[in-house]
Amino acid sequence: MRQWMRWACLLVGVGSAGLAAAQRPELRAEPPVVLSYGEVPGKEVPYVPSPPEVVDAMLAAAGVKKGDVLYDLGSGDGRIVIAAAKRFGVRGVGVDIDPRRIREANENARAAGVTKLVEFREQNLFDVDLEPATVVTLYLLPEVNKKLRPKLLREVRPGTRVVSHAFDMGDWAPDQQLEVAGSTVYVWRVDAGDKAAGVH
Ligand SMILES: C[S@@+](CC[C@H](N)C(=O)[O-])C[C@H]1O[C@@H](n2cnc3c(N)ncnc32)[C@H](O)[C@@H]1O
To answer: Could you give the CA distance from residue 133 to residue 75 in angstroms, rounded to a whole number?
Structure first.
């Protein structure tokens, strides 16, 4: 399904469970539940999982390698953090404000056998210290990316890669942009100049 269609589905109220069920056969037996993402205080983005091919492309574009520490801000069912741990043996932290997502992510990590490498925190992404991250992944919304940008540039260290599914960072030009399965993936490699410009 193309990126604009996924977001259009949300706007007409198909809801998170319906979208998840469309992509995960094991959930299809459940009747779709229409949920407003505003029901969790502080939740600024609905749950729409990145398709597997986009997850693969995000990890490849970030050049994820052993020794990295990956943070997924708004981690959903944990798929990005879990894929990175499974494939590259990297440590990861997923942050999601919705307790249902944290439960799912922990179950998925157990099933994938990566609980020693990953941690899922039920927390507002704006309250997380990003200093330990060497890779930050995002699938949020344009205005949330824009609000996050000063914090990101203040806290991450030079060399950190930021990868966003679908949405850019306003006038902070990406170092790389690619199209995958109807979605755009943006990559920034943070340097000292970005950090100086970004905090103002
Ligand atoms: C579009 S989904 C992306 C899920 C996952 N990163 C992926 O790409 O498959 C966005 C996620 O952000 C979470 N979220 C929304 N607002 C948040 C906030 N303020 N802090 C932490 N998580 C948030 C939602 O619960 C949802 O799971």
So the answer is: 14
- pLDDT above 70 for 65: yes
Centre of ligand 1 to C-alpha 144, Å, is 11
Bridge partner list, 120: 94
Q: For residue 75, which atom of ligand 1 is closest to its CA?
A: 6
- For the Cβ of 104 lying below 6 angstroms from any atom of ligand 1, the answer is no
* pTM: predicted TM-score of the whole model, two decimal places: 0.86
Query: Between the CA of residue 134 and those of 46, 66, 72, 89, 106, what are the distances in Å?
Result: 26, 11, 11, 14, 22
* C-beta of residue 198 within 8 angstroms of C-beta of residue 152: yes
68 C-beta closer than 6 A to ligand 1: no
Does the C-beta of 95 come closer than 6 Å to ligand 1? yes
- Residue nearest atom 9 in ligand 1 by C-alpha distance: 49
pLDDT at 9 (0 to 100): 45
pLDDT at 85: 98
Query: Quick one: which H or E segment has residue 186?
Result: strand 183-189
Q: Nearest Cα to 3, choosing from 137, 164, 126?
A: 164
